[in-house]
Amino acid sequence: MVLKNKNKSQLNLQAKTLSIFVIGIFLFSIFIFDQSKVLAQDTINTLNQEIQSKKQSINDLQQQIDAYQQKINQKISEAKTLNNQLAIIKNQIAKLGLDIQASEINIDKANLEIQSLNLQIKQTEEQIGSKKTDIKKFINLIYKNDQVSYLEALLSNQSLSDFFNYFKNTQTIQSNLKQSLDQLKNGKNLLDTQLADLETKKSDEEKIKDTLLTQKAKLAEQSGAQAILLAQAKMTQKQYEQYAKQLKIQQQQANADITTLEQKIRSESDRLQNLGSSALDWPVNPARGITTLFHDPDYPFRYLFEHPAIDIRAAQGTTIKAPADAYVGKIQFRGDTSYAYLLLVHADGISTVYGHISKPLVKEGQYVKRGQAVALTGAAPGSIGAGPLTTGPHLHLEVRLNGIPVDPLKYLPAF
Predict the structure, then answer these.
(1) CATH of domain 2-231
(2) Of 195, 203, 237, 259, which is most buried, counting CB atoms within 10 Å of its CB?
Protein backbone atom coordinates (compact mmCIF):
# COMPACT_ATOMS: atom_id res chain seq x y z
CA MET A 1 0.00 0.00 0.00
CA VAL A 2 2.87 2.31 0.81
CA LEU A 3 4.50 1.46 -2.54
CA LYS A 4 1.28 2.16 -4.43
CA ASN A 5 0.91 5.55 -2.74
CA LYS A 6 4.54 6.27 -3.54
CA ASN A 7 3.97 5.49 -7.24
CA LYS A 8 0.92 7.74 -7.25
CA SER A 9 2.95 10.56 -5.74
CA GLN A 10 5.67 10.12 -8.34
CA LEU A 11 3.17 10.16 -11.19
CA ASN A 12 1.41 13.21 -9.77
CA LEU A 13 4.73 14.94 -9.45
CA GLN A 14 5.60 13.96 -13.03
CA ALA A 15 2.31 15.40 -14.34
CA LYS A 16 2.86 18.66 -12.47
CA THR A 17 6.46 18.78 -13.66
CA LEU A 18 5.30 18.33 -17.25
CA SER A 19 2.88 21.25 -16.91
CA ILE A 20 5.45 23.51 -15.33
CA PHE A 21 8.12 22.47 -17.86
CA VAL A 22 5.91 23.09 -20.88
CA ILE A 23 4.95 26.53 -19.58
CA GLY A 24 8.58 27.22 -18.62
CA ILE A 25 9.93 26.35 -22.06
CA PHE A 26 7.31 28.52 -23.70
CA LEU A 27 7.93 31.56 -21.47
CA PHE A 28 11.72 31.19 -21.55
CA SER A 29 11.75 30.89 -25.37
CA ILE A 30 9.59 34.00 -25.69
CA PHE A 31 11.87 35.96 -23.36
CA ILE A 32 15.11 34.90 -25.03
CA PHE A 33 13.80 35.31 -28.57
CA ASP A 34 12.16 38.62 -27.80
CA GLN A 35 15.39 40.03 -26.37
CA SER A 36 17.59 38.80 -29.25
CA LYS A 37 15.00 39.71 -31.87
CA VAL A 38 14.65 43.25 -30.58
CA LEU A 39 18.40 43.84 -30.63
CA ALA A 40 18.89 42.26 -34.07
CA GLN A 41 15.80 43.87 -35.56
CA ASP A 42 16.86 47.32 -34.34
CA THR A 43 20.17 46.92 -36.18
CA ILE A 44 18.44 45.56 -39.30
CA ASN A 45 15.96 48.46 -39.26
CA THR A 46 18.82 50.96 -38.99
CA LEU A 47 20.60 49.31 -41.94
CA ASN A 48 17.39 49.31 -44.00
CA GLN A 49 16.94 53.04 -43.34
CA GLU A 50 20.48 53.65 -44.61
CA ILE A 51 19.76 51.46 -47.66
CA GLN A 52 16.66 53.53 -48.47
CA SER A 53 18.71 56.71 -48.11
CA LYS A 54 21.30 55.33 -50.58
CA LYS A 55 18.52 54.42 -53.02
CA GLN A 56 17.17 57.97 -52.89
CA SER A 57 20.66 59.37 -53.53
CA ILE A 58 21.04 57.05 -56.53
CA ASN A 59 17.64 58.14 -57.90
CA ASP A 60 18.61 61.81 -57.53
CA LEU A 61 21.90 61.20 -59.35
CA GLN A 62 20.12 59.25 -62.08
CA GLN A 63 17.96 62.28 -62.88
CA GLN A 64 21.11 64.37 -63.36
CA ILE A 65 22.73 61.59 -65.44
CA ASP A 66 19.66 61.44 -67.69
CA ALA A 67 19.80 65.22 -68.15
CA TYR A 68 23.43 65.05 -69.30
CA GLN A 69 22.62 62.16 -71.62
CA GLN A 70 19.94 64.29 -73.28
CA LYS A 71 22.49 67.05 -73.85
CA ILE A 72 24.93 64.52 -75.33
CA ASN A 73 22.28 63.09 -77.65
CA GLN A 74 21.35 66.60 -78.76
CA LYS A 75 24.94 67.45 -79.66
CA ILE A 76 25.50 64.12 -81.43
CA SER A 77 22.54 64.86 -83.70
CA GLU A 78 24.10 68.16 -84.72
CA ALA A 79 26.86 68.77 -87.27
CA LYS A 80 30.23 67.03 -86.79
CA THR A 81 32.34 70.00 -85.74
CA LEU A 82 35.20 70.44 -83.30
CA ASN A 83 33.08 72.70 -81.07
CA ASN A 84 30.25 70.18 -80.98
CA GLN A 85 32.65 67.37 -80.14
CA LEU A 86 34.11 69.48 -77.32
CA ALA A 87 30.59 70.01 -75.96
CA ILE A 88 29.91 66.26 -76.19
CA ILE A 89 33.14 65.42 -74.37
CA LYS A 90 32.42 68.02 -71.67
CA ASN A 91 28.97 66.53 -71.02
CA GLN A 92 30.31 62.98 -71.16
CA ILE A 93 32.95 63.79 -68.55
CA ALA A 94 30.30 65.37 -66.30
CA LYS A 95 28.01 62.36 -66.80
CA LEU A 96 30.82 59.90 -66.08
CA GLY A 97 31.58 61.77 -62.85
CA LEU A 98 27.96 61.24 -61.79
CA ASP A 99 28.04 57.62 -62.99
CA ILE A 100 31.05 57.03 -60.76
CA GLN A 101 29.28 58.62 -57.78
CA ALA A 102 26.21 56.46 -58.41
CA SER A 103 28.35 53.31 -58.64
CA GLU A 104 30.16 54.15 -55.40
CA ILE A 105 26.82 54.68 -53.63
CA ASN A 106 25.56 51.44 -55.18
CA ILE A 107 28.56 49.63 -53.69
CA ASP A 108 27.81 51.19 -50.27
CA LYS A 109 24.18 50.11 -50.64
CA ALA A 110 25.22 46.57 -51.57
CA ASN A 111 27.49 46.43 -48.51
CA LEU A 112 24.63 47.54 -46.25
CA GLU A 113 22.33 44.94 -47.82
CA ILE A 114 24.96 42.26 -47.23
CA GLN A 115 25.32 43.34 -43.58
CA SER A 116 21.54 43.25 -43.15
CA LEU A 117 21.30 39.79 -44.72
CA ASN A 118 24.14 38.49 -42.54
CA LEU A 119 22.28 39.65 -39.42
CA GLN A 120 19.04 38.07 -40.65
CA ILE A 121 20.89 34.83 -41.39
CA LYS A 122 22.44 34.83 -37.92
CA GLN A 123 19.03 35.50 -36.40
CA THR A 124 17.46 32.65 -38.37
CA GLU A 125 20.31 30.26 -37.45
CA GLU A 126 19.84 31.09 -33.75
CA GLN A 127 16.12 30.44 -34.02
CA ILE A 128 16.77 27.13 -35.77
CA GLY A 129 19.24 26.13 -33.05
CA SER A 130 16.75 27.02 -30.31
CA LYS A 131 13.97 25.06 -32.01
CA LYS A 132 16.24 22.02 -32.26
CA THR A 133 16.85 22.25 -28.51
CA ASP A 134 13.12 22.53 -27.82
CA ILE A 135 12.39 19.54 -30.05
CA LYS A 136 14.97 17.45 -28.23
CA LYS A 137 13.39 18.32 -24.86
CA PHE A 138 9.86 17.62 -26.08
CA ILE A 139 10.93 14.24 -27.48
CA ASN A 140 12.52 13.31 -24.14
CA LEU A 141 9.31 14.26 -22.31
CA ILE A 142 7.15 12.28 -24.72
CA TYR A 143 9.45 9.29 -24.30
CA LYS A 144 9.14 9.46 -20.51
CA ASN A 145 5.37 9.83 -20.78
CA ASP A 146 5.16 6.80 -23.03
CA GLN A 147 6.60 4.68 -20.22
CA VAL A 148 3.42 5.32 -18.14
CA SER A 149 0.38 3.20 -19.07
CA TYR A 150 -3.18 4.52 -19.05
CA LEU A 151 -3.94 2.22 -16.03
CA GLU A 152 -0.95 3.51 -14.05
CA ALA A 153 -1.93 7.08 -14.81
CA LEU A 154 -5.55 6.44 -13.79
CA LEU A 155 -4.57 4.68 -10.56
CA SER A 156 -1.95 7.25 -9.63
CA ASN A 157 -4.29 10.25 -9.87
CA GLN A 158 -6.79 10.89 -7.09
CA SER A 159 -9.53 12.06 -9.44
CA LEU A 160 -10.62 11.86 -13.06
CA SER A 161 -9.86 15.56 -13.30
CA ASP A 162 -6.20 14.95 -12.44
CA PHE A 163 -6.14 12.05 -14.91
CA PHE A 164 -7.45 14.18 -17.76
CA ASN A 165 -5.09 17.05 -16.85
CA TYR A 166 -2.22 14.59 -17.09
CA PHE A 167 -3.08 13.55 -20.62
CA LYS A 168 -3.98 17.10 -21.59
CA ASN A 169 -0.39 18.07 -20.71
CA THR A 170 0.86 15.15 -22.81
CA GLN A 171 -1.19 16.35 -25.78
CA THR A 172 0.15 19.88 -25.25
CA ILE A 173 3.71 18.56 -25.43
CA GLN A 174 2.95 16.71 -28.65
CA SER A 175 1.25 19.79 -30.12
CA ASN A 176 4.24 21.95 -29.18
CA LEU A 177 6.54 19.37 -30.75
CA LYS A 178 4.63 19.59 -34.03
CA GLN A 179 4.65 23.38 -33.88
CA SER A 180 8.41 23.42 -33.25
CA LEU A 181 9.00 21.01 -36.14
CA ASP A 182 6.96 23.24 -38.47
CA GLN A 183 8.87 26.30 -37.30
CA LEU A 184 12.16 24.45 -37.82
CA LYS A 185 11.16 23.56 -41.38
CA ASN A 186 10.06 27.14 -42.14
CA GLY A 187 13.27 28.47 -40.60
CA LYS A 188 15.35 26.14 -42.77
CA ASN A 189 13.51 27.30 -45.92
CA LEU A 190 13.97 30.94 -44.91
CA LEU A 191 17.67 30.35 -44.26
CA ASP A 192 18.13 28.77 -47.71
CA THR A 193 16.44 31.81 -49.31
CA GLN A 194 18.55 34.25 -47.29
CA LEU A 195 21.79 32.46 -48.19
CA ALA A 196 20.85 32.51 -51.89
CA ASP A 197 20.04 36.24 -51.63
CA LEU A 198 23.40 36.83 -49.97
CA GLU A 199 25.28 35.17 -52.83
CA THR A 200 23.30 37.25 -55.33
CA LYS A 201 24.11 40.46 -53.45
CA LYS A 202 27.81 39.57 -53.35
CA SER A 203 27.78 38.84 -57.09
CA ASP A 204 25.97 42.12 -57.78
CA GLU A 205 28.53 43.99 -55.70
CA GLU A 206 31.41 42.52 -57.73
CA LYS A 207 29.67 43.52 -60.98
CA ILE A 208 29.21 47.08 -59.71
CA LYS A 209 32.90 47.21 -58.76
CA ASP A 210 33.83 46.08 -62.29
CA THR A 211 31.52 48.76 -63.72
CA LEU A 212 33.17 51.36 -61.49
CA LEU A 213 36.64 50.43 -62.75
CA THR A 214 35.39 50.67 -66.35
CA GLN A 215 33.82 54.07 -65.66
CA LYS A 216 37.02 55.41 -64.10
CA ALA A 217 39.08 54.16 -67.06
CA LYS A 218 36.56 55.69 -69.46
CA LEU A 219 36.75 59.00 -67.57
CA ALA A 220 40.54 59.01 -67.93
CA GLU A 221 40.21 58.33 -71.67
CA GLN A 222 37.61 61.06 -72.15
CA SER A 223 39.79 63.50 -70.22
CA GLY A 224 42.68 62.62 -72.55
CA ALA A 225 40.45 63.16 -75.59
CA GLN A 226 39.33 66.51 -74.18
CA ALA A 227 42.97 67.58 -73.80
CA ILE A 228 43.63 66.72 -77.47
CA LEU A 229 40.52 68.58 -78.62
CA LEU A 230 41.34 71.63 -76.50
CA ALA A 231 44.85 71.71 -77.99
CA GLN A 232 43.29 71.64 -81.47
CA ALA A 233 40.82 74.36 -80.50
CA LYS A 234 43.73 76.67 -79.64
CA MET A 235 45.13 76.46 -83.18
CA THR A 236 44.44 79.20 -85.63
CA GLN A 237 41.77 78.38 -88.18
CA LYS A 238 44.42 77.91 -90.85
CA GLN A 239 46.55 75.65 -88.63
CA TYR A 240 43.54 73.57 -87.66
CA GLU A 241 42.38 73.14 -91.25
CA GLN A 242 45.87 71.98 -92.24
CA TYR A 243 46.07 69.62 -89.25
CA ALA A 244 42.63 68.10 -89.96
CA LYS A 245 43.52 67.74 -93.64
CA GLN A 246 46.71 65.83 -92.81
CA LEU A 247 44.86 63.48 -90.46
CA LYS A 248 42.21 62.75 -93.05
CA ILE A 249 44.86 62.15 -95.73
CA GLN A 250 46.74 59.74 -93.44
CA GLN A 251 43.53 57.86 -92.67
CA GLN A 252 42.54 57.68 -96.34
CA GLN A 253 46.04 56.61 -97.37
CA ALA A 254 46.09 53.81 -94.80
CA ASN A 255 42.68 52.66 -95.99
CA ALA A 256 43.79 52.73 -99.64
CA ASP A 257 47.01 50.82 -98.87
CA ILE A 258 45.10 48.14 -96.99
CA THR A 259 42.55 47.74 -99.77
CA THR A 260 45.19 47.58 -102.53
CA LEU A 261 47.40 45.09 -100.73
CA GLU A 262 44.46 42.89 -99.79
CA GLN A 263 43.27 42.77 -103.39
CA LYS A 264 46.78 41.89 -104.57
CA ILE A 265 47.07 39.02 -102.12
CA ARG A 266 43.62 37.69 -102.98
CA SER A 267 44.48 37.82 -106.70
CA GLU A 268 47.19 35.26 -105.98
CA SER A 269 44.58 32.59 -105.25
CA ASP A 270 47.14 29.81 -104.72
CA ARG A 271 48.40 31.64 -101.60
CA LEU A 272 44.97 31.40 -99.97
CA GLN A 273 44.38 27.70 -100.57
CA ASN A 274 46.13 26.68 -97.35
CA LEU A 275 44.08 29.02 -95.16
CA GLY A 276 41.65 27.37 -92.77
CA SER A 277 38.30 28.63 -91.55
CA SER A 278 37.81 32.39 -91.48
CA ALA A 279 35.71 32.19 -88.25
CA LEU A 280 37.42 34.66 -85.94
CA ASP A 281 38.60 34.32 -82.34
CA TRP A 282 39.34 37.29 -80.09
CA PRO A 283 42.91 38.53 -80.74
CA VAL A 284 43.10 39.77 -77.14
CA ASN A 285 40.93 38.99 -74.13
CA PRO A 286 37.87 41.28 -74.25
CA ALA A 287 37.12 40.87 -70.52
CA ARG A 288 38.34 44.40 -69.75
CA GLY A 289 35.68 45.80 -72.05
CA ILE A 290 35.08 47.54 -75.35
CA THR A 291 35.79 51.25 -75.04
CA THR A 292 34.64 52.39 -78.49
CA LEU A 293 32.21 50.69 -80.84
CA PHE A 294 32.07 50.53 -84.63
CA HIS A 295 30.90 53.97 -85.92
CA ASP A 296 30.43 54.92 -82.27
CA PRO A 297 28.50 58.23 -81.94
CA ASP A 298 30.59 58.96 -78.82
CA TYR A 299 33.89 58.63 -80.68
CA PRO A 300 35.76 61.83 -79.73
CA PHE A 301 37.22 62.39 -83.21
CA ARG A 302 34.14 61.66 -85.31
CA TYR A 303 34.18 65.26 -86.56
CA LEU A 304 37.18 64.09 -88.62
CA PHE A 305 36.05 60.58 -89.60
CA GLU A 306 33.87 57.71 -88.38
CA HIS A 307 35.45 55.05 -86.21
CA PRO A 308 35.84 51.98 -88.52
CA ALA A 309 36.69 49.54 -85.73
CA ILE A 310 36.16 48.55 -82.11
CA ASP A 311 38.64 49.51 -79.41
CA ILE A 312 39.35 46.74 -76.91
CA ARG A 313 40.83 47.84 -73.60
CA ALA A 314 44.22 46.14 -73.22
CA ALA A 315 47.32 46.92 -71.20
CA GLN A 316 50.29 48.34 -73.08
CA GLY A 317 52.32 45.48 -74.57
CA THR A 318 49.55 42.84 -74.53
CA THR A 319 50.16 40.00 -77.02
CA ILE A 320 47.91 40.09 -80.09
CA LYS A 321 47.09 36.61 -81.46
CA ALA A 322 45.95 35.81 -84.98
CA PRO A 323 42.17 35.26 -84.80
CA ALA A 324 42.35 32.77 -87.71
CA ASP A 325 44.88 31.44 -90.22
CA ALA A 326 46.16 34.29 -92.37
CA TYR A 327 48.87 35.90 -94.46
CA VAL A 328 50.54 39.04 -93.13
CA GLY A 329 49.56 41.57 -95.78
CA LYS A 330 51.02 44.81 -94.43
CA ILE A 331 53.04 46.12 -91.49
CA GLN A 332 53.18 49.89 -91.07
CA PHE A 333 55.77 50.43 -88.33
CA ARG A 334 58.52 53.08 -88.17
CA GLY A 335 59.58 52.59 -84.56
CA ASP A 336 58.52 56.14 -83.66
CA THR A 337 55.28 57.63 -82.30
CA SER A 338 53.54 57.73 -85.68
CA TYR A 339 50.49 55.49 -86.20
CA ALA A 340 51.45 51.82 -86.66
CA TYR A 341 49.23 48.97 -87.80
CA LEU A 342 49.27 45.39 -89.08
CA LEU A 343 47.02 43.75 -91.71
CA LEU A 344 46.12 40.03 -91.75
CA VAL A 345 44.38 38.52 -94.79
CA HIS A 346 42.10 35.55 -94.04
CA ALA A 347 39.93 33.27 -96.18
CA ASP A 348 36.39 34.06 -97.43
CA GLY A 349 37.06 37.74 -98.10
CA ILE A 350 37.83 38.50 -94.44
CA SER A 351 40.77 40.61 -93.29
CA THR A 352 41.67 42.15 -89.93
CA VAL A 353 43.63 45.29 -89.04
CA TYR A 354 45.35 45.97 -85.71
CA GLY A 355 46.00 49.62 -84.93
CA HIS A 356 48.42 51.38 -82.52
CA ILE A 357 50.71 48.34 -82.31
CA SER A 358 53.86 48.94 -80.25
CA LYS A 359 55.83 46.08 -81.80
CA PRO A 360 55.27 43.64 -84.73
CA LEU A 361 56.23 39.99 -84.09
CA VAL A 362 55.90 38.74 -87.70
CA LYS A 363 57.00 39.82 -91.19
CA GLU A 364 55.08 40.83 -94.31
CA GLY A 365 54.12 37.86 -96.48
CA GLN A 366 54.45 35.42 -93.57
CA TYR A 367 51.83 32.68 -93.10
CA VAL A 368 50.47 32.62 -89.53
CA LYS A 369 48.29 30.06 -87.78
CA ARG A 370 45.25 30.75 -85.60
CA GLY A 371 46.40 31.75 -82.10
CA GLN A 372 49.95 32.68 -83.18
CA ALA A 373 51.39 35.87 -81.65
CA VAL A 374 51.61 38.58 -84.33
CA ALA A 375 52.22 41.88 -82.47
CA LEU A 376 52.03 43.75 -79.17
CA THR A 377 49.35 46.31 -78.33
CA GLY A 378 50.10 49.97 -77.65
CA ALA A 379 48.19 53.26 -77.86
CA ALA A 380 49.47 54.85 -74.66
CA PRO A 381 49.66 58.55 -75.65
CA GLY A 382 53.11 59.44 -76.94
CA SER A 383 54.29 55.81 -77.12
CA ILE A 384 55.76 53.94 -80.11
CA GLY A 385 53.13 53.33 -82.78
CA ALA A 386 50.38 55.23 -80.94
CA GLY A 387 49.74 58.02 -83.45
CA PRO A 388 48.23 61.41 -82.58
CA LEU A 389 44.63 60.43 -81.80
CA THR A 390 44.76 58.07 -78.84
CA THR A 391 43.67 58.57 -75.25
CA GLY A 392 44.87 55.38 -73.55
CA PRO A 393 46.20 51.83 -74.07
CA HIS A 394 43.91 49.65 -76.20
CA LEU A 395 43.72 47.56 -79.37
CA HIS A 396 42.09 49.15 -82.41
CA LEU A 397 40.55 46.18 -84.25
CA GLU A 398 39.08 46.41 -87.74
CA VAL A 399 37.31 43.59 -89.57
CA ARG A 400 36.90 44.02 -93.34
CA LEU A 401 34.72 42.07 -95.73
CA ASN A 402 35.98 42.32 -99.31
CA GLY A 403 37.91 45.42 -98.28
CA ILE A 404 34.98 47.24 -96.63
CA PRO A 405 35.09 47.85 -92.84
CA VAL A 406 32.27 46.00 -91.02
CA ASP A 407 31.25 45.74 -87.37
CA PRO A 408 33.76 43.32 -85.76
CA LEU A 409 31.26 42.29 -83.08
CA LYS A 410 29.20 40.56 -85.77
CA TYR A 411 32.18 38.32 -86.60
CA LEU A 412 33.54 37.63 -83.11
CA PRO A 413 32.24 35.22 -80.44
CA ALA A 414 29.97 36.67 -77.75
CA PHE A 415 31.71 37.40 -74.45
Answers:
(1) 1.20.1260
(2) 259
